[in-house]
Design a protein that fits this description.
The chain has 341 residues and is α/β, with parallel strands linked by helices. It has 10 helices and 15 strands. Helices cover 26% and strands 21% of the residues.
Length: 341
């Protein structure tokens, strides 16, 4: 803003107008209202987007295999659990925005069952939003509601995944503002990664670590069904500290994390199955963890992390936890990696 004010003072209206010699970031707040950007998992969370679940989450039992879900959610319970999540966020002075959509909103192929998972439809980098393209037919089209909310809020849209690219936000885990991990899975392909990577490089990302994930053919039963998103099996909980389910990722990813000085808490199978890795940090050293995972909670607390447990058992039935249910819009940059070993 200071640069804009200074440039404004130097304008000579007695001469024909010429371009202002400032870059996009210099003018971001004065034109778009806010310093949009959330290139961190652990920087102080300032603004977040959520979607209160509606009747679309109650999947027909006969179609659970199609949706890859464990069970049908109880609508009343899942709404109460979501309201509790929002109260925690507001109690931490986070500005909470709601994504709106009609009840039983339909995309081109099916009812949009996963609208509660605002994480997947797009993410905000320094300067604006990247709109994703969903992979599975029961989700495709949900990104429209996310994009509409971004435009309503005045957040500029920098890019939209297109062509045959698919990309979902659950496959994004930041290590710091210049280092990002992207899961390559049945729900995020190489073309989508390539398109998003071009934008990431333009906003200061120096290293993109692609993490291949196993997928499924006919079975989505644990553990044969593989993993849709990286944030189901890997979560960045604090500066230099991660929770991870090692059997779900390549060994070279574990080596990569070690080389970057990141300590890892190995989550046991019984907790990993129900998304113990799907942690959501509010600020450095303070993280939301699904209720009931005592091993993961205790390990994090021993590392000095302030753990806030959140009951989201109905969300587990339909495929996620607090990281899935939140789309950060503004975060502080957070601490940088300490450096390679």
């Amino acid at each position: 803003m200071e640069l804009v004010e200074q440039a404004s003072k130097n304008i000579d209206k007695n001469r024909p107008a010429v371009p202002i010699d400032l870059n996009y970031d210099d003018e971001l707040r004065s034109i778009w209202g806010k310093e949009w950007g959330a290139q961190s998992e652990i920087g102080k969370l300032r603004k977040v987007l959520v979607k209160r679940p509606g009747p679309e989450v109650v999947h027909p039992l006969k179609d659970l295999k199609w949706y890859g879900m464990k069970d049908a959610a109880d609508l009343e319970k899942i709404r109460v659990q979501h309201d509790n999540l929002v109260q925690i966020l507001k109690g931490e002075k986070v500005d909470v925005e709601y994504m709106e959509a009609p009840e039983m909103a339909k995309g081109p192929y099916d009812v949009l069952r996963g609208l509660w998972g605002t994480r997947d439809f797009g993410f905000v980098v320094n300067g604006g939003a990247i709109v994703h393209r969903m992979s599975l037919p029961w989700d495709r089209g949900g990104e429209v509601f996310w994009a509409k909310k971004m435009m309503e809020l005045g957040c500029p849209i920098l890019s939209t995944v297109r062509g045959f690219g698919v990309f979902e936000g659950g496959n994004v885990v930041w290590l710091d503002p210049t280092h990002i991990c992207i899961g390559k899975s049945i729900r995020t392909n190489q073309e989508g990664i390539d398109q998003v990577s071009e934008v990431l490089k333009s906003v200061g990302v120096e290293e993109i670590k692609i993490v291949p994930l196993p997928g499924w053919l006919d079975s989505t039963d644990w553990p044969a069904g593989g993993f849709a998103h990286l944030d189901c099996v890997f979560g960045y909980a604090d500066s230099g500290l991660a929770v991870i389910y090692p059997p779900a990722v390549p060994y070279d990813f574990l080596e990569y994390l070690r080389k970057n000085g990141i300590r890892m808490i190995e989550v046991p199978p019984d907790e990993a199955r129900d998304y113990a890795c799907n942690v959501f940090a509010l600020e450095p050293g303070k993280v939301l963890v699904l209720d009931g995972f005592e091993f993961t909670k205790t390990k994090l607390e021993k590392e000095g992390v302030d753990v806030i447990t959140v009951g989201m058992s109905e969300f587990v039935k339909v495929g996620g936890g607090p990281h899935c249910a939140t789309s950060p819009l503004i975060r502080d940059p957070g601490p940088k990696l300490s450096g390679r070993k």
